[in-house]
Amino acid sequence: MSKTHFYRDTWVEVNVDHIASNVKAIIEHLPENVEMMAVVKANAYGHGAVDVAKTALQAGAKILAVAILDEALELRANNIRCPILVLGWTRPKDVQVAIDHDITLTYFQQSWIEEAATHITSGRLSLHLKVDTGMNRVGTKSFEEALQIYEYTSNKSNFNTVGIFTHFATADEDDLTYFNLQYESFTSLLHRFEKRGIIFKQIHTSNSAASIRFPEQTFSQVRVGIAMYGLAPAKEMKQRIPFPLKEAFSLHSTITHVKKIKAGEAVSYGADYIAENDEWIGTVPVGYADGWIRRLGGKSEVLVQGKRVPIVGRVCMDQFMVKLTDEVNIGEKVTLIGEQGNEKITIDEVAERLETINYEVPLMISNRVPRLYTHNS
Ligand code: PMH
């Protein structure tokens, strides 16, 4: 366990051995010369960017990807020295900060590159060109547009375009029509660049789903996020993953109060849970301020003494209540996500209860909950 000090008995455990094992399995699955870029944006999908980044690099990842410059700077502030790519749009006036910290930025607009040029006082800005092949999120829309802004950078010594990439919208889906269109559109764009003698050193398109399903349709790098955390990119993908993925994130707390209430008594705000019988009620010090949102009240369950127990009444800001099968001691462990004995509550189960995707679940557990980094025991 890490030595982080905190004064509450609610914590996230991130098993870094599981992350390392996932990274190694993914790298092994790819052709030998393909490098893995570990996507650690959004605090490594809620797992903790610095610890995950260090783990991924040790396990063989070569590059880190983040969404915004601030995330890249956090990694640099923690002595991470590998190449870092910012995938999103950065303010042109901040490009010198990127140069000073050796951070690679993404570009896809003529106006951006022109303005960025006016903000460089020293050094060279390392860049990847983002082309849009179907997401319609960010990226150039045509070969001509991509060529024009690429040439603008190649004519200026302050810019160094080292890479080109696109992003798939449907690589995790059963129907591959759209994926194939995007793939073909990207390869034909690359050929048009090649015909003009323009060869990019770093080329990447594949997220977790595409890397796992089509390892041979990758380029020099892949950008892997969700699979590194041990989660399938989509339900449809679960059967298609030919190696074990180990979920790294679990969430635990401890019972702070226990009492027996009488049939007819109510629990929590609104007094809308009414005990049918005399019942043991335990209080868990986790609430919606921790990201355990109110919609998780009512039907959902947590683990106590290796058994599933239901959450009863509304989830409060800092606490919720459970219906216990028996009296338990103050300090009894509660597992909200993870394993106890033979029972397991997976991130996918919580996502399903919330009618969302697994990506969102570790991310919604707020920073008030400390992250502890554990190893296989
Ligand atoms: N590359 C880019 C540009 C991304 O936006 C993402 C994930 C990844 C790679 C990694 O994808 P994976 O986690 O499926 O492997 N981005 C997002 C997003 O914007 N919303 O959900 C996932």
Features:
377 residues; alpha/beta; Lyase, Ornithine Decarboxylase, Chain A, domain 1; 2 domains; 10-stranded mixed β-sheet; 4-stranded parallel β-sheet; 20 strands; binds ligand PMH
Textual characterization of the structure:
This protein is α/β, with parallel strands linked by helices and 377 residues long. The radius of gyration is 24 Å and the shape is elongated. Strand 5 (105-107), helix 6 (110-117) and strand 6 form a beta-alpha-beta unit. It has helices at 16-29, 41-45, 49-59, 69-77, 95-100, 110-117, 143-154, 177-195, 208-213, 347-353, 360-364, and strands at residues 11-15, 35-39, 63-66, 84-86, 105-107, 125-130, 159-165, 202-204, 221-224, 249-254, 257-261, 266-267, 273-274, 279-284, 301-304, 307-312, 320-324, 333-340, 343-345, 371-374. Strands 1, 10, 11, 14, 15, 16, 17, 18, 19 and 20 form a ten-stranded mixed β-sheet that branches. It has two domains: 16-234, Alanine racemase (TIM Barrel, Alpha-Beta Barrel), CATH 3.20.20; 249-356, Lyase, Ornithine Decarboxylase, Chain A, domain 1, CATH 2.40.37.10. Helix content is 27%, strand content 24%. It contains eleven helices and 20 strands. The mean pLDDT is 97. The structure holds ligand PMH. Ligand PMH binds at residues 39, 87, 167, 207-209, 223-227, 233, 359. Pathway: Amino-acid biosynthesis; D-alanine biosynthesis; D-alanine from L-alanine: step 1/1. Its cofactor is pyridoxal 5'-phosphate. Substrate binds at residues 137, 317. It is an enzyme of class 5 (isomerase). The modification N6-(pyridoxal phosphate)lysine is found at residue 41.
